[in-house]
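Margin note: ligand = aspartic acid.
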Amino acid sequence: MFKKVSLLSAVAASLAFVATAASASYPDKPISVVVPFAAGGPTDVVARNLSQALGTQLKGSLVVENVGGAGGTIGAGKVARAPGDGYTLLFHHIGMSTAPSLYRKLDFKPLEDFIPIGAVVDVPMTLIGKPQMTATNAKDLVAYVKANKDKINLANAGLGSASHLCGLLLQSAMKTDLTTVPFQGTGPAMTALLGGQVDLMCDQSTNTTGQIKGGKVKAYAVTSKGKLANFPELPPLNAELPGFEVGVWHILYAPKGTPAPIVTQLQTALQAAMKDPGFVTKMKELGAEIMPVDKQNSAAAKALLAAEIAKWSPIIQAAKAYAD
Ligand code: ASP
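Resulting structure:
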């Protein structure tokens, strides 16, 4: 009996040693942070700022890898199949919760194939138009779109992206179907909008703040419930379309199988990174709200993801917005 106990304790002690050693030497090479959208867009901007702050905390380097396409599902699928060793992470948004309902065939399971590290930011969207749009306010825009639906197109970052989701809600609230034009991210979609090749887009303030403040696009409304401090001149879209509200939450994930000590280390580093003055200032400037401290952990982020999957599933089924 005595022998058995000491053998067990020896095994437990050596396992604890392996776990601590794995964590103590981590990271000893660059960590790839996959952004499932094109470079230069809103998810990319937050990921790059976060990677810098996380790198300081982890005393290592984080390299953003853009794997765009299919509304974020290609990049997410790549991370789902990556080794769970802490060297591949995913920075994704609300699309992680809409993809299971939008895609009949999805090669990952959001709640099973990933370990959320923590929720990071919540970002409002803005409704913007190409510089040539003649409507000057949200009221005129809604009337114009309803009367000219065959002449208007709506850019998005692919099925399952936040811009797609916002566009779906917009069309349903206006009871109007518009032609949609998908891009690999709203970074390239913004270039097309500025060039007048597409007409309208809903996008996170993290991509639109500079263009709106610089007067480069027509800005019509914010998708938050009330007005935003960053855009006091813009009304909430729900003033024209009652009940309209979209916020884009973001979570940092590791693939399943990532050792618990590394998940804990990443979670601690993430919580510290979100207090980094450079990160805080940049997020404020771009209108992104840093998630409350009680959401900056693995369990709370997983609960958020599960609740959002349950919330969007009936809405998407009712809209019959599947990908074939
Ligand atoms: N804002 C994009 C979206 O609509 C994604 C991106 O390019 O970051 O989901």
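The radius of gyration is 21 Å.
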